[in-house]
Amino acid sequence: MQTQPQPNQPNPPRPQYQQPPQAPQPTKEKSKLWVWLMIIAVVLTVNGVITMLGGVPIKTESQKWEYGAQFATDEEMERKFTSAGDNHWEVVYCRRARDPKNNWGYECIFKRPKQ
């Protein structure tokens, strides 16, 4: 059974209501700082994308290339590749192949700047 409050008995104190703290309003200086930070972020992002894509292409005279092909067995490969590199040749493509004597090796295409 519930007890009724006595008429002369004071009511229990009510808790005080406190308003939640207000978020600080941005000042003009903070707004300017935010704009500058966004501009810097955009510039750095664009710069990074351009760098990843190889930079801004500069129109120059077209490079002329000289090409050559060579077959090397597994045993000859290191020596022949080192010799080709010493003469400024770059490997363009290699595939596993057999020579006319039915020996396995690599048939490679090389290139170097034409002089």
Produce the secondary structure layout.
Layout: H1 28-52, E1 65-73, H2 77-86, E2 90-98, E3 104-113
Antiparallel strand pairs: 1-3, 2-3
C-alpha end-to-end distance: 109 Å
| Element string (H = helix, E = strand) | HEHEE
The largest sheet has its strands arranged as 1-3-2
* Largest β sheet strand count, sense and barrel closure: 3 strands, antiparallel
Question: Got a strand count?
Answer: 3
Total helices: the number is 2
Runs in which pLDDT lies below 50 for 5 or more consecutive residues are none
Q: Note the beta-strand portion.
A: 15-25%
Question: Nearest-angstrom radius of gyration?
Answer: 39 Å
Can you give the mean pLDDT?
82
Shape, principal axes of CA atoms: elongated
Helix content: 25-40%
Which class of secondary structure composition applies to the elements?
A: alpha+beta
Sum up the structure in keywords.
alpha+beta, three-stranded antiparallel β-sheet, 115 residues, 24% strand, 2 helices
Can you characterise this structure?
With 115 residues, this protein is α+β, with helices and mostly antiparallel strands. 30% of the residues lie in helices and 24% in strands. It has helices at residues 28-52, 77-86; strands at residues 65-73, 90-98, 104-113. The chain has a 3-stranded antiparallel sheet with strand order 1-3-2, with helices on one face.
Short recap of the structure:
Helices cover 30% and strands 24% of the residues. The protein has 115 residues and is of the alpha+beta class.
